[in-house]
Amino acid sequence: MADMADLRDFPDQAYSGVHHGPLQEGEWITLQDSKGRRHSVKLERGKIFHTTKGGIEHDDLIDGPDAVTIRSKGNVEYLALRPLMADYSVSMPRGAAVIYPKDTAQIVTMADIFPGAKVVEAGAGSGALTTALLRAVGIQGQVISFERREDFAEVARKNVTGFFGAEHPAWRLEIGDLVEKLNEQDVDRVILDMLAPWECVDVVAEALSPGGVFCAYVATTTQLSRVVETLRAHGEFTEPRAWESLVRDWHVEGLAVRPGHRMQGHTAFLVTARRMAHGVQAPRKKRRPAPGAYGDDYAGPRRAEPGSEASAEQPVQTSGDMP
């Protein structure tokens, strides 16, 4: 068995998705022009990548070093680099929309994805988040992905396998509904990227270990409200935390330092909460709700008052019934 220093050059053993040495046929590279426009290219012998400024022959890159410049037939210079995971995730073929790197980084950090962790995700989408989860848990961990649509699952499988160069031993892809198919126990983390994650709270609570992390990725304020209130109504999760992240580039050129003209604004909201021990109620939020927060127009889940024999929550509405 090669030592750890050597494993980086054997993707089928290290499963990092990172390659070293000369560029090889079948690898993806990124070609970038002087204006910052990028193109993802899969290297194949005998092929030509066509641009408006002339073609670039793949054979001129294969067996050569990474991080070089190459000129098209029209004498335009391009930078050729192996893509980082962030580059790969935004350029991969898509079935469902991908989770962008700024949110992936937040999920991996704030949900505390660690080597050896047992992680459940739903849905798999196009596999962008899955690649980050697998790299974080490593070959000693486990990622179980649920995807309702077979066509999306197939796209995810191709993208994840394409990134790592082989089937990752820590990954299991299940086609079906998480609520119906999840029968795991002692799960460390659950990541939900789906239309109605609140429908999964009870099932997820049974699967998570005490102290485990629930994380939901939702696009709208209505979804955000529903999942937060459902976690509160369940009673055995810590007070949910909700946030979004915004990323803005800066232009830096001598004394001309200013914000960039474009930024990555709202993509989605993230919600996290910790699983309490089974049967243990989380401390109630002491801050008084804003006026009207739970007025006559509010029809969502409600946590039962102390000493009340009422149900912990009203029936959860489906996404089509959301106010």
Automatic annotation (TrEMBL):
How it assembles, according to the record, is: Homotetramer composed of a dimer of dimers.
Chain intervals with Polar residues compositional bias = 314-323
| Biological classification of the source | Bacteria, Bacillati, Actinomycetota, Actinomycetes, Propionibacteriales
Catalytic reaction annotation: adenosine(58) in tRNA + S-adenosyl-L-methionine = N(1)-methyladenosine(58) in tRNA + S-adenosyl-L-homocysteine + H(+)
Please list where the region (Disordered) is annotated. 279-323
InterPro entries linked: SAM-dependent_MTases_sf (IPR029063), TRM61_C (IPR049470), tRNA_MeTrfase_Gcd14 (IPR014816)
Q: Which residues form a coiled coil?
A: none
Q: Which UniProt keywords apply?
A: Methyltransferase, S-adenosyl-L-methionine, Transferase, tRNA processing
Q: Which Pfam family is one of those matched by this entry?
A: TrmI-like_N
Source domain of life is Bacteria
This one is known as tRNA (adenine(58)-N(1))-methyltransferase TrmI
What family is it from?
Belongs to the class I-like SAM-binding methyltransferase superfamily. TRM61 family.
Tell me which Gene3D superfamilies the record gives. Answer: 3.10.330.20, Vaccinia Virus protein VP39 (3.40.50.150)
| Source organism of this protein record | Kribbella aluminosa
* E.C. number: 2.1.1.220
Q: Which CDD domains match?
A: AdoMet_MTases
Gene Ontology biological-process annotations: methylation
The segment(s) forming the tRNA (adenine(58)-N(1))-methyltransferase catalytic subunit TRM61 C-terminal domain are 88-253
